[in-house]
Amino acid sequence: MEAKGTRSGTVRRRHLIVVAATAALGAAGAFRVLRGPAQEERGRPGAPGGPAFDETYRGRRIQGEPTTGGGVHGPGGWRVTVDGKPLGLMRRADGSYLSMVDHYRSYSTPLAAARGAVDELGTRQSLAGRLH
Amino acid sequence: MAYTRRNQRSLSRAERRRFVDAVLRLKRRGEYDAFVRTHIDHYVSDGENRRRVAHMTPTFLPWHRRFLLDFERALRRVDAGVTVPYWDWTKDRTPAASLWGEDLMGGTGRRGDRRVSTGPFARGNGWIIKESVTDGDFLTRDLGRPAAPLALPTRQDVAWAMGETVYDVSPWDSTASRGFRNRLEGWAPGTGDARWRNHNRVHRWVGGHMLGGASVNDPVFWLHHAFVDLLWSRWQRQHPDSAPFLPERPPAPDEPQHRRVVARREPMPPWRTTPQDMLGHQGIYRYAE
Ligand SMILES: [Cu+2]
Ligand SMILES: [Cu+2]
User: Fold this and answer.
1) Is the pLDDT of residue A29 over 50?
2) ipTM for this model
3) A3 to chain B: which residues are within 8 Å by CB?
4) Potential cystine with B36: which of A16, B95, B131, B199 (Cβ 3.0-4.6 Å)?
C-alpha cells in the first residue's frame, strides 16, 4: 500500500533551514547538498529518512521535515503533517517509522509512513490534531 | 475460585448479551476510556531511548496480561458472572463469523469513512469514541482490508512462534530474530505483508481503530489479547524446561537496552506488578480450550 498512488504535481520543496544536530539513529555525517532549480539550497547534515517533502497524495497535502529538538518521541524526529494536522511518527530499532494511526507496521521513510497514514484514513477521516 | 475464559463462539446468546452489557456500562461510567488512555500512554517504540513496557519488549505478554486482568476486574464489578472471551483467529477467519454479529462485536466499517454501523459499538447505538487520533467520534474497522486483502494468521504462523524454545532474546526488541515473544507479537524480517505476523497481523486485519495506539476503542481488542494470553500459557506448558520470562536481570549500564526493558523482578509501569507476578494465572482464571 505504501507506494500506491502518484505524486500529483511537483514536489514543492521549500527552502530548507539548516538543521544543525545529527540524529540519534541512522547514518550520520554524510553531507547532502540539495539543488533547487533557481538557487542552490544550503546543505544540511544528512538526516535519516530522506529529504523533506511536500506533496499531494490522494488529495491530501502531506508535508514533512526533520526536526532537531527532542520532541515527544526523542531526537532525530520529523515534523509531518496531513492537511496541516500533525501526524506523530515513532522510530523503530531497525530505523523504520511507525505513524500514530498505524502502530502495527512500519515504513522505511517518513514519506512512506505519511502516505500509509493517508491510505488508512480513507477518504473522509482527518487527523484530530493530537500528537499521540 | 478460578473463573473461566471461554472461546467467544461457545457463548450462548444470553452470555453474549451479558458481556456486551457489562462493557457498555463501563463505557457509560467513563471507566472504559481510562483503559484506552493507559494503552495510548504506554506505546513506546523501540527506536526511542525510553523504557518500553507494552510493545516491542519482553514484557509485551505480562503487561497485557495485567491490563486484561484490570479490565476483567472492572467488568466483574458490574456483573460477577462475566469474563473476557477469547477470539481464536486461526479458526474464526472471516467477517461472516458470528464474532462480528449484531449481538457481539458488530460488523465491518462502511466504505469511505470506515464507520462501524451495526451492533452495540456503532455510533448510532451510542458507542462514542473519545480518545482517538482521528476526528470522527465513531468506531472504525476495515475487516480483511478488502482494498488490499490480507489473511488472518494461520495455525502455521502460530506454530512458528510456539516452536521457539527461548522466551525472548537480546536485543529484546522488535528486531530480535528468535524468541517466542517477538514471534508471537509479530515483528518478522522479510518483505511485504510477511513482516506483520500473529498478534500484529490481527490488528492489521481488523483495521480502523485497531491499527493505532487507541486500539482499545474497539472491544475486539480484549478478545484478541485474551487469545494471545492463552497462547502464552500454552507455550509455557509446551516448554516446561524453558525460562518462563527473560531477561532475568536488567541489562547492564554498558548495554544498549539498559533502562529500556524490564527484567523479571522489576515493576512494569503503571503498576508495581512484575513479570514474575504475571507468570501464571492459576487460582485466578483458566481457559476453556
Ligand atoms: Cu497493546
Ligand atoms: Cu495488541
Assistant:
1) no
2) 0.89
3) none
4) B131
Span B81-97, pLDDT tens digits: 999 999 999 999 999 99
Closest CA to B139 of B36, B11, B42, B25: B36
Answer yes or no: do A83 and A29 share one domain: no
% pLDDT > 90, chain A = 38
Distances (CA, A) of B280 to B86, B257, B277: 18, 26, 8
What number is the average pLDDT over the span A4-27? 32
Residues A44 and A20 in one domain: no
Nearest-CA distance from A75 to chain B in Å? Answer: 8
Per-residue pLDDT, A35: 30
pLDDT tens-place string over residues A91-122: 999 999 999 999 999 999 999 999 999 998 88
The pTM score is: 0.88
Given a cut of 90, whether residue A76 has pLDDT beyond it is no
- Ligand number with the minimum distance to the CA of B221: 2
CATH 1.10.1280.10 matches B3-287: yes
- Least Cα separation, residue A94 to chain B (angstroms): 7
The answer for A 2-31 residues in CB contact with B (under 8 A) is 24-25
Given a cut of 60, is residue A18 above it in pLDDT?
no
Packing angle of the helix pair B220-238, B155-162 (nearest 10 deg): 50
Residue A58 falls inside a structural domain: yes
Distance from CA of B143 to the nearest CA of A (A): 12
Q: Are B140 and A125 in contact (CB under 8 A)?
A: yes
B59 touches chain A (CB under 8 A): no
* Class of residue A101 by CB neighbours under 10 A (exposed 0-12, middle 13-18, buried 19+): buried
Round to whole Å and give the CA distance between A80 and A86.
Answer: 6
